[in-house]
Design brief:
heterodimer; A: 506 residues; alpha/beta; Rossmann fold; six-stranded mixed beta sheet; 25% strand; globular; B: 364 residues; mainly alpha; ABC transporter involved in vitamin B12 uptake, BtuC
């Protein structure tokens, strides 16, 4: 058991607001000497904000931080390092073109007569990495090594620059293989034995159970609780993260039951052992016209990867995909649109909107793309289509000629939905269509999905919010660790789905 | 009403992409009106219209044509530095097709007589025009392949042809300046139908470019790819082909401009033809309000006006008797002025003029 009587960091009553978002509300967090402490929660739960407050990136509006019993105000990330709090970020932020040794010791190079003592530097770097049980040629550029080694170098740097008492690892395993993860865990346990406290942020629950002593759960900016990892079951942990208690399903549930009768027995899409290495394990999938298929699972479980394969962003390296009875060969968005498959992508800003173009142009874009370069929709048709969808989806915009970047997030999302509805697809894949938008629009979008199903179209509905998936989907596929683990049809028990998300090993 | 009227009209005007090029052109012409006597004089001789204003139009022709292609390339978020070199290649090819004796081709008949004959051309005239245009387009395709499929930074990718292009032009002509006596070819750059014939050619390229981009979906796709290529790809637009098209069209325009530039000096001068014109073309596009580097919304009319603004400035300088060698310094001043005018601070200031005038009148 960890040495909990000696807390290195204690954060009390931390409160932080950004314009429009109450990111942290009265959150307490403590970190004991020689423990590995998991910090979990879905997107927007407040994990990163809490870490930013601890490392001085953000100042809390209220609340105190004590370090070794002394109250401190962390002024900046640099100050945090001086205090002994080091962070290794998800994206390794080192210089790939410098050598490993330079990356570890830059800013603290050993010098001789005022010049850098390269020899001493390389020896020191080698020692430091040796302590982490990594033995490599430190004179090679960092970029020539695997991400895992780069992580190790980042950890070595974090330890050397601060004589760290506390180390924060922000999703260090998201791009590591199983073997590399194991190596990282060895290093974490070694640091633990040396009395360093580690905060470990991850979306992989298996890893929480494998390596951590305690776990703190955040949800919507509030503290759910801190538990000894061994004392809380996987299922309970997921419940705590998602915050789902069984609520009465609203009228949409009734609507769903009605639409279920419209599901055709034909097959619109069939995936047979479709998979892509390093992305998603091979999976089978069948979809009927008029059916809504929900993909449930935690972030990074493979939901977006499936969407990308079905829409042709990625090309599978095994298996066959059949849409409307014909084998898919042309894996590209353009090809998919030709087949009547559309994807409303997860990252609205990067993959969805074309900010400087008008609402009208954004709406007609996919339709025009499928018509080709030369068959331009004439202006009158463009205006008519834009007006129709602005009314249908209730898009709040001063005019169809407004640049789409000036609209709110929810309305931008509606514009992208309009783009795909205008293209009249047979299958609409919605990847996190409700993320970051207001509650009213969320309900609108869920209702729209059911309306589409009633019209005989198919939908794939992806959401981190389990109740949304339950409310809209006739069938639910559960994903875990980039593989399809189970499939539920008909009357679905929420508890079973949560168990499937968590993994039956609980 | 009058009060709000000015503010409203001013607001609408300054919002327009064409406001700055038109305003700057007006300022230059007003300056010329007061400080250069006779600048606005036009004379009509032998069915030709002459004058400084006509000179501005005539001199700006190659840059206007280049700017059409450059506009599309810049709108996709790229740049094409090779257009000057492609001009040299294009004019060299045209000259060698009229007179291939320079590369050791045996011509039937007395060479001296032949090449001095204003009616003589080894290849038929349609080929002399068409082949350089095709070669220019191929040069553009090469750039486009490097940028869109090779994923090389546009500046680096087109730098290759910018450097190599003049070498290629020299190879084509054996590094000899071929003097051309063919009158049909020379007509491209020197003919007149009231206005210089080249002005009509520029107008033709402008209209063709406008029809090609705005009467089809290509213009919107180019803008979309320039603003957010990932979102464009997700929407089913083939963003690579769009870029390829933009560079190919830019190469075509460079080939066209090369023909006119070569024709107007009646030689193939691989070292001089199109020298630094890539910079003029980029400058014209930027003056015309298409944003360099970021890509996105473009205006062909703005770019054409931008080229005319540039040559109005230069022609005015000449008219004031400033030495040709000092003109480059003047261009530098234009660049600085353009950058300042398009900065967000100055833009806000200009838009603010309308509001301020309202405030002042209200205060009164």
């Amino acid at each position: 058991m960890s040495d909990t009587d000696h807390d290195i960091v204690v954060m009390t009553g931390i409160d932080k607001s950004f314009p429009g978002v109450h990111a942290l509300q009265n959150v307490d967090f403590s970190l004991a000497k020689g423990e590995i402490h998991a910090l979990v929660g879905e997107n927007g739960a407040g994990k990163s904000t809490l870490i930013k407050v601890l490392t001085g990136v953000e100042r809390p509006d209220r609340g105190t931080i004590t370090l070794d019993g002394q109250p401190v105000v962390v002024r900046s990330p640099l100050h945090a390092q001086d205090l002994g709090i080091s962070t290794v970020y998800q994206e390794v932020n080192l210089c790939p073109n410098l050598t490993v040794a330079e990356n570890i010791l830059i800013g603290r190079q050993p010098t001789k007569f005022g010049r850098v003592d390269w020899k001493a530097m390389n020896i020191r770097a080698k020692e430091l990495l040796g302590e982490l049980e990594v033995r490599i040629d430190v004179t090679q550029p960092l970029g020539s090594y695997s991400v895992a080694i780069q992580q190790m170098a980042a950890i070595a740097r974090a330890l050397v620059i601060s004589n760290a008492k506390a180390l924060i690892l922000d999703e260090p395993t998201s791009s590591l293989t199983a073997h590399e993860t194991a190596q990282l865990f060895r290093v974490m346990r070694k640091l633990k034995s040396e009395g360093i406290a580690t905060v470990f942020i991850t979306h992989f629950l298996d890893q929480v159970y494998e390596v951590t002593d305690r776990v703190t759960v955040l949800r919507n900016g509030t503290l759910v609780g801190t538990y000894a990892t061994a004392s809380v079951s996987r299922l309970d942990l997921i419940k705590l993260m998602l915050g789902r208690t069984l609520t009465t399903l609203d009228d949409m549930a009734a609507h769903k039951i009605v639409t279920r009768q419209h599901i055709s027995s034909e097959t619109l899409l069939e995936a047979d052992g479709v998979g892509l290495s390093n992305s998603i394990e091979p999976f089978d999938l069948k979809l009927h016209p008029g059916e809504v298929l929900g993909l449930a699972g935690l972030l990074g479980s493979g939901r977006t990867e499936i969407a990308n394969l079905l829409f042709g962003i990625d090309k599978p390296d095994e298996g066959t995909l059949t849409v409307g009875g014909s084998l898919v060969k042309n894996f590209s968005p353009a090809g998919s649109i030709g087949r009547g498959v559309a994807l409303c992508p997860e990252d609205r800003k990067d993959q969805g909107i074309v900010g400087d173009l008008s609402v009208r142009e954004n709406i007609i874009m996919a339709m025009q793309a499928s018509k080709g370069w030369f068959k331009r929709l004439n202006s009158r048709d463009q205006d008519a289509i834009a007006d129709r969808y602005i009314k249908l989806l209730n898009i709040a915009t001063p005019s169809a000629e407004q640049a789409v970047k000036n609209l709110s997030g929810g309305n931008q999302q509606k514009v992208i939905l309009a783009r795909w509805l205008a293209a009249n697809p047979r299958l609409l894949i919605l990847d996190e269509p409700t993320r970051g938008i207001d509650v009213g629009t969320k309900a609108d979008i869920q209702r729209l999905v059911l309306t589409l199903a009633e019209e005989g179209k198919s939908c794939v509905f992806i959401s981190s919010e389990l109740d949304e998936v339950l409310r809209t989907s006739h069938r639910i596929v559960v994903l875990r660790d980039r593989a399809k683990v189970s499939e539920f049809v008909g009357q679905v028990d929420e508890k079973e789905i949560m168990e499937a998300i968590a993994g039956s090993a609980a | 009403m009058k009060r709000g009227g000015f503010s409203f009209v001013w607001g609408q005007m300054t919002e327009s992409r064409l406001f700055l090029p038109i305003a700057v052109l007006c300022l230059i012409l007003i300056f010329d009106f007061f400080f250069i006597p006779g600048f606005f004089n036009l004379t009509f001789e032998q069915g030709h219209l002459y004058g400084s204003l006509i000179d501005i139009l005539r001199n700006s022709v190659p840059t206007v044509i280049l700017a059409m292609g450059m506009t599309l390339v810049i709108a996709t978020g790229g740049v094409d530095l090779s257009v000057g070199a492609v001009m040299a290649i294009s004019s060299s090819v045209a000259c060698i097709m009229i007179n291939p004796s320079i590369i050791g081709m045996n011509l039937s008949g007395n060479i001296g007589d032949l090449i001095n004959d204003p009616g003589y051309s080894w290849a038929p005239m349609w080929a002399v025009i068409l082949v350089p245009l095709i070669i220019g387009t191929l040069c553009g395709l090469w750039n486009g392949v490097l940028v869109s499929y090779g994923r090389i930074q546009p500046m680096v990718a087109t730098l290759i042809l910018m450097i190599a292009g003049r070498g290629i032009a020299q190879l084509i002509t054996n590094a000899v300046k071929i003097i051309i006596f063919n009158d049909t070819y020379a007509y491209l750059g020197n003919g007149w139908i009231i206005l210089p014939f080249a002005v009509y050619l520029a107008l033709f390229v402008f209209v063709a470019a406008w029809l090609l981009t705005r009467r089809t979906a290509i213009g919107m796709f180019v803008e979309s790819v320039g603003i957010n290529f990932r979102a464009s790809f997700y929407s089913g637009i083939n963003e690579k082909k769009i870029k390829l098209f933009a560079y190919a069209f830019c190469g075509f325009c460079a080939g066209f401009a090369g023909l006119i530039a070569g024709s107007s000096i009646r030689t193939s001068d691989a070292n001089q033809i199109g020298l630094y014109t890539e910079l003029d073309a980029i400058l014209a596009v930027v003056i015309g309000g298409t944003v360099m580097g970021a890509g996105g919304r473009f205006s062909l009319l703005g770019s054409a006006l931008g080229a005319i603004v540039l040559y109005a400035t230069i022609t005015s300088m000449y008219a004031m008797g400033i030495a040709a060698s000092a003109i480059i310094a003047v261009k530098a001043v234009v660049v600085i002025a353009v950058i300042l005018l398009y900065s967000s601070q100055v833009q806000t200031m200009i838009r603010g003029i309308g509001k301020q005038s309202v405030r002042r009148e209200v205060a009164r």
